[in-house]
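Consider the tokenized backbone below.
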């Protein structure tokens, strides 16, 4: 059974169009989640980014363990490039360049799932 995870963050007012363009132009990262030894530990199944005014929500669906997913995402060059472009546009600075900084952001920005329904379950 897959899992879902979402984070919420805000950009500076007036930066919305730049943020939209960064996401539109961002590359597609590798979807297989591999451990340090190269074994497949999971897979990113779906990624969605939503925006309303200066509020941004990034949601992912994945198979595997969340710490592995977070490590995988922050190691992807496409994501690092996107994060570097986003950084000066964000209302609240964050450090996505270190494992500690990324974990701090994910813990602080994580959203709680209240309802998760499927049509066939």
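A designed sequence for it:
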């Amino acid at each position: 059974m897959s899992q879902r995870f979402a984070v919420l963050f805000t950009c500076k007012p007036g930066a919305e169009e730049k943020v939209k363009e960064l996401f539109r132009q961002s590359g597609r990262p590798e979807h297989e989640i591999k451990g340090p030894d190269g074994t497949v530990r999971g897979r990113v199944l779906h990624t969605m980014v939503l925006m309303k005014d200066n509020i941004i929500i990034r949601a992912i669906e994945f198979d595997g363990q969340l710490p592995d997913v977070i490590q995988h995402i922050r190691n992807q060059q496409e994501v690092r490039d996107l994060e570097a472009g986003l950084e000066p546009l964000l209302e609240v600075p964050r450090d996505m360049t270190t494992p500690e900084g990324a974990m701090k952001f994910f813990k602080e920005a994580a959203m709680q799932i209240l309802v998760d329904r499927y049509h066939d379950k």
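Residues 99-109 form the longest helix (11 residues).
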